[in-house]
Automatic annotation (TrEMBL):
It comes from the Bacteria. SUPFAM superfamilies: P-loop containing nucleoside triphosphate hydrolases. Keywords: ATP-binding, Nucleotide-binding, Transport. CDD domains: ABC_MJ0796_LolCDE_FtsE. SMART domains: AAA (SM00382). One of its GO terms (molecular function) is ATP hydrolysis activity. This is Putative ABC transport system ATP-binding protein.
Length: 263
């Protein structure tokens, strides 16, 4: 029996999970080289609400390759946020198969899922989810704490990530001392600090004005183009979705259409 640090810092017991920065799955092997970033086959998720079963996803199949820039689009209640939570290993499917970077998530227990999230996926949320009493550099460094990276190296990587999003001059400021656009850039730096294979962004411009929203989308586009990191974002804004090269339209728990630009 091994023990691993969960996302919230608590220990989670699990078996056969390989730690480290080379990849992880619950059977002690590394992620599959050259595998899709995400591969879903007939993915479904149901919830029980007041004794009634509600189907949030009803059999979604898709493949997202490394280096893609994808927008998941749909109206409220369409299932797009449920799909994002499943792709991010924040929830488990009721049925179907989901592979993340070649790893079948059904082989992972909670500790293994925490490792996969920490090592493969960077998250950017609409509400930033920054620690209010903590400096920008320490907020960004937090994912590296769970990897066991030393303090000096954590700070160096966090400073580098903040500089890459134009916040090299704001490293010791707390979130309350920053604008909404700056806080979202801190969140992007936190997503980048672990060199993820994919960044999942849930309504990343939802709490921002037009100018800051454009800046955030520009950073995500550069991340995708210059580093080759797959970017998958959820949005209800057509102008935001238009900046992605591929748009997956979700309605009533199903993929309505999947369109890709020729560029």
């Amino acid at each position: 029996m091994t023990r691993a640090m969960g996302d919230d810092g608590g220990e989670t017991s699990h078996r056969g999970v390989l730690r480290g920065e080379s990849g992880v799955n619950g059977r002690g092997t590394t992620a599959v080289a050259g595998a899709p970033a995400f591969e879903a086959v007939e993915l479904a998720r149901s919830y029980r609400l007041e004794g009634v079963s509600v189907d949030a996803l009803r059999g979604v199949s898709l493949r997202i390759s490394p280096g893609e820039f994808v927008a998941i689009v749909g109206p409220s209640g369409s299932g797009k946020s449920t799909l994002m939570h499943l792709l991010g290993c924040l929830d488990r499917p009721t049925a179907g198969v989901l592979r993340v970077n070649g790893v079948d998530v059904s082989t992972l227990d909670d500790g293994g899922l925490a490792d996969l999230r920490n090592q493969v996926i960077g998250f950017v949320f609409q509400s930033f989810h920054l620690l209010g009493r903590t400096s920008a550099v320490d907020n960004v460094a937090l994912p590296l704490v769970y990897r066991g990276v030393g303090r000096a190296e954590r700070r160096r990587r966090a400073q580098e990530a903040l500089t890459s999003v134009g916040l090299g001059h704001r490293m010791d400021h707390r979130p309350s001392q920053m604008s909404g656009g700056e806080q979202q850039r801190v969140a992007i730096a936190r997503a980048l600090v672990g060199d993820p294979k994919v960044v999942l962004a849930d309504e990343p411009t939802g709490n921002l004005d037009t100018r800051n929203g454009e800046e955030v989308m520009g950073i995500l586009a550069r991340l995708n183009a210059e580093r080759g990191v797959a970017v998958v974002l959820v949005t209800h804004e057509a102008e935001v979705a238009a900046q992605a090269r591929r748009r997956i339209h979700v309605r009533d728990g199903l993929i309505e259409r999947d369109e890709e630009d020729a560029r």
